[in-house]
Amino acid sequence: MKSFDVAIIGSGPSGASAAFELSKSGISTVIIEKETLPRYKTCGGGLVFRGLKMMPFDISSVVEKEFYAIDTYFSQKHPCITTRRKEPIVSMVMRDAFDNLIVEKARNNGVTLLQNHKVVDITFGETQTIHTTEGDVTAKFIIAADGALSPIAKIAGWKETRTIIPALEYEVEVPAADFERLSNDARFDIDAIPYGYGWCFPKKNHLSIGVAVVIKTNKKINLKEYYAAYLKRLGITEILKEEGHGFVIPVAPRTDFFVQKNVFLTGDSAGLADPLVAEGISNSILSGIQAAEAIIESQLDPEKAAVLYTEKLKTGILPEIEKAKVLSYHFYSKKSFRNIILMKYGQYAAEALTDLFMGERTYPKDYLKSITKKIKDAIFF
Which domains does the chain have, with CATH numbers? Predict the structure, then answer.
């Protein structure tokens, strides 16, 4: 039976980043992955600069395109707003290559990778016994980095308290003229779908196009129908090749806790995507690093590690998510409210959002008061 200090279940940005961080401290670590790497992962693949800055090594070998400008269409009634920066606002990656790069860096530092090991159950105790399809693995700590569906959270006893939204993404090959026309900038179209947005992310030789409903609604929304309408908005009338994937994104964190039975939830399993834009890679990387740091700083003490990880989340990611959640509700469900602001402050709003992508600012604490004042200024002046 293989034994380790830490078992990380899942090899995405969260799990792989946690493994790399642990490897620097000499803590014996294993990544347990149910598939063979590199494996396809449904994702728009937009790594914003705040996430790129967290990477402890060069990732240029897996970056397909870099964009120093973003086009945002807040609605069909408003003109396109473009923001520009000296550093890449978003770097386009394919998740199979990106995730595998981080895993390989961790392996080079001594982390063990077990592929084609699907976890079927866990026996909990002072040491956790992880039962997989290829045999048992024991570890003192488990980091659950197994994504939005997170079977590990279910096995460990968590009930579902996250807010989960639907999304649809296609890898699309189009004629050369269309690709040339659409490949110059990353693009967001707010209201391309009710309560959400569409995106067009150019990759090396194809487009990643999708739609997502960002806030929870009881209304039934046909994602395929709005995706088809979004293609028309983009001016795409011919598709050479198309491969679609439906997926879900947790945009509000668990409301109970993030550690129990020596299992640490990170990334989507914890529900840490940004509620305003549904971007999850950067917080996945950060939460993976923070879980690893907590275990390292505790000197493998489970109680101390749980407290440390929770404190790190409460002083960093969680306050930002809470503020973004309220802003997201007003932004997507109060369209008239939003459009009054955008008529006068659209460029300011786009610049502020870009600053968030760049990691140059946080969500403001008193934005509702500030927005109310701006509405009055917009109406009366």
Answer: 2-45+94-162+253-320 (3.50.50.60), 163-251 (3.30.9.10)
